[in-house]
């Protein structure tokens, strides 16, 4: 069904005819559909603001959402949006020309947050926190102006896993990017439909489709970022034990509050010998994945 040339969305025109690419495409489409269903993202007739940075992940997100919409599996209206943050050297014509050529409804917004970030962040500190906060505020504003009920982001499985370990190593908490989030004002959802998709698959897909990828030189120019440190650790684990990333990611969907230490989510004080057998396996050994690192 995905391979019929007469019913393909323009974003897939020129797709490689190889078996490898067809399998990749079907896998990503399946995983995105699974995420939207698992986390209840679809509201029939809703309008989504699909945020497009020009990177491999957001191109993959845009293409797959339009694929699902094209096939009647995503009954929502999609509006692509790029926020041009005034970064020097940003190729401002690439995305509007691409979106127009693909026939994708879009809005291009210029807001010079780059100057604010450079002015406010002390030398040697990372830009990410302030940059993302300013970007998020503008995207929320645009979503409201466009009558959208959700802001849709291109964070993938590896982003979610890296954020979990960043919180664990540096933040002292067990938390990550949820696939579905309600904003603080309670009027907009934030969706991450690529939650089940591996970064490597986004890379392969966007490169194979020859989308005009725009690098983020602002973040990439800084050394020693916490996310890069975590990524290197995970890369090392994956190299020594292939598949470990997916195992760790699945653990985020299989939590046991009774086997953690947070009294706000499990009533340890009220636990008694007559409260039931649901936590009798306290001494259960964890799965063995080889020698410890």
Written overview of the protein:
The protein is α/β, with parallel strands linked by helices. It has helices at residues 19-38, 56-70, 94-102, 113-120, 128-145, 157-171, 199-208, 217-220, 226-240, 244-251; strands at 47-51, 77-84, 106-110, 150-152, 180-182, 189-191. Mean pLDDT is 88; it is low at 282-293.
Topology at a glance:
Layout: H1 19-38, E1 47-51, H2 56-70, E2 77-84, H3 94-102, E3 106-110, H4 113-120, H5 128-145, E4 150-152, H6 157-171, E5 180-182, E6 189-191, H7 199-208, H8 217-220, H9 226-240, H10 244-251
Parallel strand pairs: 1-2, 1-4, 2-3, 4-6
Antiparallel strand pairs: 5-6
Helicity level, as a percent range? 40-55%
Q: In what order do the strands lie side by side in the largest sheet?
A: 3-2-1-4-6-5
Q: How many strand units?
A: 6
Shape: globular
Summary?
The chain is of the alpha/beta class and 293 residues long.
Give me some keywords for this one.
293 residues, six-stranded mixed sheet, globular, 6 strands, alpha/beta, 10 helices, single chain
């Amino acid at each position: 069904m995905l391979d019929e040339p007469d019913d393909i969305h323009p974003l897939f025109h020129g797709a490689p005819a190889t078996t490898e690419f067809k399998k990749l495409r079907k896998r990503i489409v399946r995983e995105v559909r699974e995420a939207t269903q698992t986390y209840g993202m679809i509201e029939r007739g809703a309008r989504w603001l699909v945020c497009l940075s020009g990177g491999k992940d957001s191109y993959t997100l845009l293409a797959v959402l339009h694929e699902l919409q094209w096939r009647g599996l995503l009954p929502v209206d999609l509006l692509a949006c790029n926020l041009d943050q005034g970064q020097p050297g940003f190729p401002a014509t690439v995305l509007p020309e691409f979106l127009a050529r693909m026939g994708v409804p879009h809005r291009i917004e210029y807001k010079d947050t780059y100057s604010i970030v450079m002015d406010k962040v002390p030398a040697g500190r990372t830009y990410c926190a302030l940059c993302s906060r300013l970007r998020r505020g503008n995207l929320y504003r645009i979503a409201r102006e466009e009558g959208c009920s959700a802001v849709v982001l291109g964070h993938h499985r590896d982003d979610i896993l890296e954020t979990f370990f960043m919180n664990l190593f540096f933040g002292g908490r067990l938390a990550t990017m949820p696939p579905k989030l309600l904003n603080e004002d309670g009027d907009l959802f934030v969706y991450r439909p690529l939650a089940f998709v591996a970064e490597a698959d986004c890379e392969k897909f966007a490169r194979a489709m020859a989308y005009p990828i725009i690098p983020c030189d602002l973040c990439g120019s800084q050394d020693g970022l916490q996310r890069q440190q975590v990524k290197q650790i995970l890369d090392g684990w994956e190299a020594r034990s292939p598949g470990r990333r997916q195992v760790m990611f699945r653990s985020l969907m299989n939590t046991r509050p009774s086997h953690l230490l947070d009294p706000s989510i499990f009533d340890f004080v009220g636990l008694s010998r007559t409260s039931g057998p649901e936590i009798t396996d306290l001494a259960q050994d964890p799965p063995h994945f080889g020698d410890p690192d």
